[in-house]
Amino acid sequence: MIEDKIFTKQRLINLSIIITAIWFTWFAQNFFDEYTVRIINNVAIFIILAVSYNLINGVTGQFSLEPNGFVAIGAYVVAILTVDAEGMLYQYDIEDPSEWILAMQAEFIWALLLAGIISALLALSLSFPVFRVRGDYLAIVTLGFGFIIRILAINNPQITNGSLGINDIPEFSNLYWTGGAAILTVLAILNIIYSKYGRAMKAVRDDEDAATAMGVDTFKIKTLAFTTSAFFEGIGGGLLAALLTSISPDLFTFFLTFQLLIIIVLGGLGSTTGAILGTIFVMAGLEWMRFLDEPMNLFGYETEGLPGMRMVVFSLILIIVMLFAREGLMGKKELFELKFFKKKKDVK
């Protein structure tokens, strides 16, 4: 009976959060200024990337460094399918685009879904060699994958326009697209985490050998997490391309993966709520702190602009947070698991 009450309370909390998120998406799109909307768009896209990356790295405990590769694939798929043939002929300067590239056209929704599917299929094929290793070796293998994708993008100008990248991508990423995709991603990931597959992922994270001894097919579980994560990373990459309207290989360096790693560690490895909070803290916080790079009046004393000062302050804040919250802002807990949302009977 108590478990049923707890489950009902969790569903009510989740439903209220979803309704609030939908309302905020509509309100922000219609009443916020263009600059603020763009920041929220960026935050929503990185929520998709962080939550999906957290599934393989935090929930399943596999130290993977591949996100930049799958994000790049998603971005290029959407760019190639949405830019018309005339636009490609105009901007492909290094080498003429392939005929099959010119012939490929799709509506944005189908391009976005295809970006996720192609990323997921590639992840599925990679899982066979990748999950033959563990720990640091897994990190090195997946890190190499990200470099390979970037090099292929540079060295195949007939497909990707090489180092020049693809410009004039139609801008579809308004808050209805990015916010809606972020909400659906969070719902999908949470449903996986609280299913039998999610429990198996946590078992693999806590002790893979013990999970194997208890009959868990660890390869299947890791592959499921890896493929699901890649699917949503491809979706996020496609939305990022449609938001920026211009992409190049330099956008998908290891720095993107490192940024996502900071977000999920700061929020708490294994916590979807933590990944969301970490994204807001990092992406929105860095934008808010831009005033630190500009000239300021401190107690009547005019200071010169110090470019990069916000990064110094942000780094200090990260150090302080990690010193006093060593498991991140949320640890492994979700929002509805906090004591604030529990009654004494529920805790018992």
Automatic annotation (TrEMBL):
The UniProt keyword set, sorted, is: Cell membrane, Membrane, Transmembrane, Transmembrane helix
Keyword DNA repair present in the record's keywords: the answer is: no
| GO cellular component term, pick one | plasma membrane
Query: In this record, what's one Pfam family?
Result: BPD_transp_2
User: Where exactly are the transmembrane stretches of this chain?
Assistant: 12-29, 35-56, 68-88, 108-130, 137-155, 175-194, 224-245, 311-329
Membrane topology reported for the UniProt record: Multi-pass membrane protein
The yes or no answer to whether the keyword Membrane is present is yes
- Name the Gene Ontology molecular function terms of this record: branched-chain amino acid transmembrane transporter activity
- Where does the record place it? Cell membrane
Write the protein's name.
Answer: Branched-chain amino acid ABC transporter permease
| Organism of this sequence | Arcobacter arenosus
